[in-house]
Write a structure and sequence with these properties.
heterodimer; A: pyruvate-formate lyase- activating enzyme; Arc Repressor Mutant, subunit A; nine-stranded mixed sheet; 16 helices; globular; B: eight-stranded antiparallel sheet; six-stranded antiparallel sheet; 13 helices; 32 strands; 23% helix
């Protein structure tokens, strides 16, 4: 029972899809859409029951592979997991605890969006052992929230946050976003101060990314080398300039530092001892199993992803005994698993670098050598040297990004890839 | 037999329907059934079909039963219409005895109609007109008939009025070919004298030579001799042209058009325009051949992947075989490595060759800015023909320079005369004359420097006249001009492949546009990159590619590491398509940007 792993559970539903959002999620209120068809009845409140049942089945069914592991972080993400009704929350965690060895003191996070939280839900979380909440505020400016297509206003967030504190949550993260349409450096500072004054234990501050296939991409999309597709952005607020956007990033560290938050990852800041263990697990290549639509896993140096096709995911019906049947024929759940890939040692080393470098303390050379039995310089010496010459990497006992290196993290990280694209 | 042969070609302004008429003639004469007809059978290069233009001269033989009850052999040689390919037209004309002049019933005579007619008359060909596209609502055949008689001065009354597209009037055309075009002259018993008008390389048969027999005859076993190159070969096979195939026959005799194979391995032994004779019974004099055509536009062609240099060399050699106007010689560039300086008839020719190299030979190319040939008179009396701007001597050694000037004829409808004159002025044109051809159309004559028309003159002409202007030009000669070399410095390093020669008056404008364009093409680097244009060491324009401020992915997607890795890999892959100059990575297409300076500006 020495091996530790994490569990990620995906709830792919939202009240409505935000205009910038590229995550796998379906709007729940829209009637007559594809989701409703796949899920039969559609759903009036909570998360569609058919999906939850399918998820519970998957959680149990997969557990057989992990009897020798102890789960020390669980993250329920989305979508909007706070759509789950209290009863659904109970069902979900009951199933997890029945099927897995969850360690004492495990970090158990629920993602929540303002406007969907209620006292009953929060109590259900507490009762089921959830000890960390991650609430998506994004901005303290109602105009910016509207431009993002969020359903909440700052007041809604404020109420949710206080409700959570009242219910006894002592580890709360607030999600913020910079680089928003119409956002000025000043309004970002306002958002930062507002969030920090609420005194959460953790703040995630992401820069907005314009993702292909989103309404934002049509509005603000760029070609391969970063030029706007449309010369004029008609009727929409403009994105901040690159200079302002960087300024916001620098201000983030500085302002949050004054409030006692320490940056530990490119976009994450926490008070001492409150760093998100689940996310650190991703950067340190800890094993994790993902359940639910489109969830990714890494176990035994094997990566895979559940199907993102809701219809395909739902087709597998629980027969009640933990096996999956389709038309009465027993079928392995592995049809759900896609892009299965066993990582070569070389790929593992690459991952150690480009994931580890996301964290401020980077990668320990000694640990690298212990892990792979080869010195880091032997594999990445040239690039390490070049990057430290260019002032992007600190190359000592530990390898980590310099302040400038954090601005150009992709450029630094891409250099650690050795595999050609055709092989993936 | 000989008096039942008709060797003819079709000439026309581009888009007046020459290739379509050729198709109909082939169809009508029963060589192919309707089902077998692909559109434009004669155009067998992919590129030609796609662009709907004819690039290479092609020949086909058909049998036609005329109204007099006799069967005639019709040898049709298709010719290209674009001004860049006048040389090809001239080659085709030399093999013919007559020409069909196709004129669009709506558009009437255009600049190239005139140019082609004059060329045909120069070759002593019998020319008769055909008015095409009579089915168009805007067709005015009678007006066009009058125009032909007035402007060209050949009889047009009663000429065939046709629609090649719909197969109307094709019989009339065929009858006219038989009655109006003379049978070939020459005697079967005279010593062999045959004109090479084209050739093709076949991996099995070697070089296939396309000939028109003027005198004598040739058959398998004949010991033939190339009069210019002196090479001799034993003929393996002779034959004529089916549609898209070679059909062997016993012999080719005076008046016939056909092909010869003789296991000729060396491409250089068969020069187009050369005369073939019988080594054992040679003729006295070679045929006049063709006026040697000189390339007008030069540019550097480099393989994107340096290792492909030998492939590029082989490909150019093969293309040169049936494109005598193509010129190439090896050169080296600091920025681009090993490549070739190539000469072309014009910019379209350049584009066609470039596309053929990329498509037919699977090569990825980098093209440098096109240049004309400048004459550089040095102070020490030496005169240099400059085809590569990089080789321009130091200004202190130059006495003066000359640039080629063309005489341009532009036919344009009244409404656009103003804007076209403006265009010509902008391009340093010298006004010669303007004549009204009829009430609504005029023929403008200008002298223009060639280097002002090789970039995008056609496009500008088209857009400023809404397509109603046509253009043709002839080289007039050289004139002294104030020329300077414009250098481009990227991160303070001169990039030889981007240098070009420009008139001193437009150096600033060009330099500025070039910098702007390059600023857009060059991706951001970790450091700031100045892009400068300089003349004689003096900076005249500058732009800056700002340093990359940010390149970071804020968030991971719920542990989806594979997705993140793919993004990083894509980024890394993009770098491979760049040229490293100093410590700056330049995308290959940046080298072509000089070609498109006027676009979207």
């Amino acid at each position: 029972m020495s091996r530790r792993m994490s569990i990620y559970i995906h709830i792919p539903f939202c009240v409505k899809k935000c205009d910038y959002c590229d995550f796998l999620s379906f709007p729940i209120r829209e009637c007559g859409n594809k989701t409703a068809v796949v899920l039969g009845s559609g759903c009036k409140e909570g998360v569609p029951e058919e999906y939850l049942q399918r998820l519970l089945c998957e959680i149990r069914q997969e557990s057989g592979d992990y009897t020798d592991r102890e789960v020390d972080t669980i993250f329920v993400g989305g979508g909007t997991p706070s759509l789950l009704l209290p009863r659904q929350v109970t069902d979900l965690f009951d199933r997890v605890y029945q099927s897995y060895h969850v360690a004492f003191g495990a970090e158990i996070t629920m993602e929540a969006n303002p406007g969907t939280l209620t006292k009953e839900k929060l109590e259900a979380y507490r009762q089921m052992g959830v000890n960390r909440l991650s609430i998506g505020l994004q901005s303290a400016d109602n105009g910016e929230l509207a431009a993002l297509g969020r359903i909440h206003r700052f007041q809604d967030f404020r109420e949710s946050y206080e409700l959570a504190r009242d219910c006894g949550f002592q580890n709360i993260n607030i999600d913020l976003m910079s680089g928003l349409p119409g956002q000025s450096v000043d309004s970002w500072l306002h958002t930062l101060h507002t969030a920090a004054r609420l005194d959460p234990e953790h703040i995630s501050a992401y820069g907005l990314i314009i993702e292909e296939g989103t309404p934002f991409y049509q509005r603000y999309g760029t070609d391969g080398i970063g030029r706007k597709l449309l010369s004029e952005v008609d009727g929409f607020e403009k994105l901040p300039s690159e200079e302002d956007e960087r300024q916001m990033y620098y201000d983030t560290g500085e302002v949050l530092g004054k409030y006692g938050y320490r940056q530990y990852e490119i976009s994450n800041y926490a008070k001492g001892g409150y760093e998100c263990r689940h996310n650190i697990g991703y950067w340190t290549r800890k094993e994790y199993a993902g359940f639910g639509l489109g969830a990714a896993s890494m176990i035994n140096n094997k990566r895979w992803k559940n199907t993102s096709d809701l219809k395909k995911y739902m087709k597998n019906v629980d027969s009640g005994d933990g096996t999956v049947r389709r038309n009465g024929i027993r079928e392995s759940a592995s049809t759900l698993k896609e892009e299965m890939r066993v990582l070569s040692v070389q790929e593992q080393m690459e991952e150690t670098m480009f994931l580890g470098l996301r964290m401020n303390h980077g990668v320990s050379k000694k640990e690298f050598e212990t892990l792979y039995g080869v010195e880091i310089e032997q594999i990445f010496g040239t690039w390490l040297y070049r990057m430290s010459e260019e002032g992007l990497l600190n190359n000592g006992e530990r390898v980590f990004l310099s302040e400038r290196g954090r601005d150009l993290a992709n450029y630094v990280m891409a250099g650690f890839l050795m595999i050609s694209v055709e092989n993936t | 037999m000989q008096d039942h042969i008709r060797n003819f070609c079709i000439i026309a302004h581009i888009d007046h329907g020459k290739s379509t008429l050729a198709d109909r003639i082939i169809e009508k004469t029963g060589l192919l059934t309707q089902r077998e007809m692909q559109e434009q059978v004669l155009d067998n290069m992919d590129l030609e079909r796609e662009r709907g233009i004819t690039i290479k001269a092609q020949a086909v033989r058909t049998i036609y039963k005329a109204k007099d009850g006799e069967e005639y052999i019709l040898n049709l040689i298709d010719t290209p219409g674009h001004v860049d390919f006048n040389y090809e037209v001239s080659r085709a004309l030399a093999a013919c005895d007559g020409a069909i002049l196709v004129v669009d019933a709506a558009q009437g005579i255009e600049a190239q109609t005139l140019a082609n007619v004059y060329m045909a008359l120069d070759h002593d060909l019998e020319v008769f007109p055909v008015i095409n596209k009579i089915d168009l609502p805007s067709a005015e055949p009678q007006r066009v008939v009058e125009e032909i008689e007035d402007v060209i001065g050949i009889e047009a009354e009663g000429c065939p009025l046709i629609s090649a597209k719909n197969g109307i009037g094709i019989d009339d055309v065929l009858e006219s070919v038989v009655t109006k075009i003379p049978a070939p002259k020459g005697s079967k018993d005279a010593p062999l004298q045959a004109l090479i008008f084209d050739s093709l390389y076949d991996p099995y048969k070697g070089v296939i030579v396309f000939v028109r027999i003027m005198e004598g005859c040739i058959k398998k076993g004949t010991r033939m001799k190339m009069m210019a190159t002196g090479a001799s070969f034993d003929v393996v096979e002779v034959g004529y042209f089916g549609a898209g195939q070679f059909i062997p026959c016993e012999e080719l005799s005076a008046g016939m058009v056909g092909y010869i194979t003789a296991s000729i391995k060396n491409v250089k032994d068969t020069a187009v325009g050369d005369t073939v004779t019988d080594a054992d019974n040679p003729c006295q004099e070679p045929l006049p051949g063709y006026k040697k055509v000189l390339p007008m536009v030069y540019c550097g062609l480099y393989p994107a992947d340096g290792a492909k240099y030998p492939d590029l060399r082989d490909a150019l050699e093969k293309l040169k075989l049936n494109d005598a106007s193509l010129f190439y010689e090896p050169e080296t560039s600091v920025a681009l490595g090993f490549g070739f300086r190539c000469g072309f008839l014009g910019l379209l020719h350049l584009e066609v060759i470039q596309e053929r190299l990329e498509r037919e030979y699977n090569l990825d190319l980098v093209t440098t800015a096109p240049s004309v040939i400048y004459k550089v008179y040095k102070t020490d009396g030496e005169v240099i023909d400059l085809t590569n701007p990089t080789n321009l001597p130091d200004p202190s050694e130059i006495d003066h320079m000359e640039e080629p000037i063309v005489k341009a004829e532009i036919m344009v409808t009244k409404d656009f005369i103003g804007s076209i004159m403006e265009l010509c002025q902008e391009r340093r044109g010298r006004y010669l004359s303007m004549d009204y051809m009829e009430e609504t159309r005029a023929l403008l004559k200008y002298e223009l420097p060639l280097n002002e028309i090789i970039y995008d003159f056609f496009d500008a002409l088209k857009s400023r006249s809404k397509g109603y202007a046509s253009f043709d030009y002839d080289i007039k000669g050289y004139e002294t001009s104030e020329l300077v070399k414009l250098d481009i410095l990227i991160n303070r390093e001169e990039v030889d492949a981007l240098s070009f020669i420009v008139h001193s008056g437009s150096a600033y404008e060009r330099g500025r546009k070039m910098c702007e364009k390059l600023k857009d093409e060059i991706p951001r680097h970790l450091f700031e990159i100045p892009i400068q244009a300089a003349v004689g060491g003096k900076i005249i324009a500058r732009e800056t590619v700002k340093a990359m401020r940010k390149d970071v992915l804020a968030k991971c997607y719920g542990g989806d590491i594979t997705r993140k890795k793919k993004l990083l890999e894509k980024q890394k892959e993009g770098k491979k398509r760049m040229r490293q100059i100093g410590n700056v990575e330049i995308p290959q297409k940046a080298f072509m940007s000089v070609l498109k300076l006027d676009e979207d500006k």
